[in-house]
Amino acid sequence: MSKYKEIKVALLGAGTVGGGVYKLVERRTAEMPDKVGAELKITKVLVKNLQKKREGIPSEVLTDDWEGIIHDPEISIVIELMGGVEPARTYILQALEAGKNVVTANKDLLAEHGQELMEAAERNHRDLCFEAAVGGGIPIIRPLKECLAGNEITEVMGIVNGTTNYILTKMTQEGWDFDDALKEAQRLGFAEADPTADVEGLDAGRKMAILASIAFHSRVTFKDVDVKGITKITAKDIQYAKEFGYTLKLLGVARNEEGKMEVGVSPMMIPSTHPLANVNDSFNAVFVHGDAVDDAMFQGRGAGEFPTASAVVGDLISVARDMQYDCCGRIGCSCYKNLSMKPAGEARHKYFLRLIVEDRTGILAGVAGVLGNNGVSINQVIQKPAVNGVAELVVITDKVETRHLNDAMMIFGEMSMIREVASVIRVYTQK
């Protein structure tokens, strides 16, 4: 008989990540007593279909009986990897109320119901850990909550979706258009058959809500995040970005300025000299700016079976250690402030504009006049040679309040000499 206590674990979901977690725990079985001071054993795996074969998971641990898990007094940790809001929300709440600790990777749930879940964990003095919800295998939740706790964080920004980063990398390096890059991402398994959550920025928006809540100690939900995707980005936009010395990335940016938060996800042009400009393919990276640490960058695989399993198992080990020293719940909800969101129209940014205009005298002066009358000054401008009586005018503005830029865009839409406002893309600038 082993001299070590056995901690029994239930795993909800046996998909790609769930399978990776089971395999990784088994791979580390011999080391667990030294890492944790106890043995860790996944004794039940909740699935919908008991007849389906699960590679690497013995059939005897599979179950479709949630009640059997929640009422099993020997199971002290529940790992939720089902995804979606329900029944995951109900299961996690029931597990916490039953005195079980919880590890989850469910960004959708946390971005909508994080406060409710954290309050349930605190009420029951249980751990609720979710490192894998943001950035896959990249450690970022625990660093923000613990390692950087001595800082006032004023900005968290980065690439937090591997699918869109792969697509934009191919468009940049190969000159592909969006549709071709998406098809290749789907062929390789980086993109789902329905890629909406990724390419429309929804996945990244949920992750930024979680990061902002932790970084600024004030609750941010998904509805607070201004989200734009990459479906309208063209190879031409990327080429012009290069000409101006920029690289185009889908960035999540959360800022806290004078007690007002601004959280958004959108395609942005970032200086090609910035470290994030060279984070390519399916990699993710997060930049954090604090008053003491200055800049810190976290980079790695943002998704996949074992990168995500790495974060889940890291949380599992942390919870087991807390159990050994009877200190579960020691790091709970960090949202002790109630900051306001900055109105979207008051945000100040630089913008890249690509206009399709008639090739005639006075066009540039007319465009500059409209921008100037609306408080928008021009930083850089390029006019491309006309083809068949139509030219392209490419402008980068100075910093401007978004509402003033929107006013100018409305006027452009009514001007016959401007055929189309083809692109309006934010240019990233440091605070």
From TrEMBL:
Q: Does the keyword NADP apply?
A: yes
Where, in this chain's numbering, is NADPH bound?
107
Q: Report the protein name in the record.
A: Homoserine dehydrogenase
State the Pfam families in the record.
ACT (PF01842), Homoserine_dh (PF00742), NAD_binding_3 (PF03447)
What organism is listed for this UniProt entry? Hominiventricola filiformis
Keywords noted in UniProt? Amino-acid biosynthesis, Metal-binding, Methionine biosynthesis, NAD, NADP, Oxidoreductase, Sodium, Threonine biosynthesis
Requisite cofactors: a metal cation
Q: What SUPFAM superfamilies would the database entry show?
A: ACT-like, Glyceraldehyde-3-phosphate dehydrogenase-like, C-terminal domain, NAD(P)-binding Rossmann-fold domains
Enzyme Commission number: 1.1.1.3
Residues of the active site are 207
Where along this sequence does the record place binding of NADP(+)?
A: 12-19
If you read the UniProt record, what top EC class would you report for this enzyme, in one word?
oxidoreductase
The terms under GO molecular function for this entry are: homoserine dehydrogenase activity; metal ion binding; NADP binding
Q: Biological process GO annotation list?
A: methionine biosynthetic process; threonine biosynthetic process
Please list the residue ranges annotated as the ACT domain: 352-431
Q: Tell me which residues bind L-homoserine.
A: 192
Listed under catalytic activity are: L-homoserine + NADP(+) = L-aspartate 4-semialdehyde + NADPH + H(+)
Q: In which pathway does it act?
A: Amino-acid biosynthesis; L-methionine biosynthesis via de novo pathway; L-homoserine from L-aspartate: step 3/3; Amino-acid biosynthesis; L-threonine biosynthesis; L-threonine from L-aspartate: step 3/5
Family to which the UniProt record says this protein belongs: Belongs to the homoserine dehydrogenase family.
